[in-house]
Amino acid sequence: LPVQSAITHPRPGAAVPAGELTVKGYAWSGGGREVVRVDVSLDGGRTWRVARLAGERPVPGRAWAWALWELQA
């Protein structure tokens, strides 16, 4: 399965002040495959940035849970 992800911060419709922004979320894959990268677009898909994966890395072949990610923009 392709990696699926969700944004958890900021919430949909939230007012975001000008300046630096932290975007957070989680991602998951299928078949025990590890999430190795999450790309985030802040401009409707014109450009993409690589988010930082957070937390412990799973044992190869045993990645059955989600991975947290964060992007400073």
UniProtKB/TrEMBL annotation:
Single GO MF annotation: molybdopterin cofactor binding
Keywords of the record: Metal-binding, Molybdenum, Oxidoreductase
GO CC annotations on file: mitochondrion
Repressor among keywords: no
UniProt keyword Metal-binding present: yes
GO terms, biological process: sulfur compound metabolic process
Cofactor dependence: Mo-molybdopterin
The protein's name in its UniProt record: SUOX oxidase
InterPro entries: Ig_E-set, MoCF_OxRdtse_dimer, Mopterin_OxRdtase_euk
Gene name as annotated: Suox
Pfam family, one: Mo-co_dimer
Annotated Moybdenum cofactor oxidoreductase dimerisation domain residues: 1-72
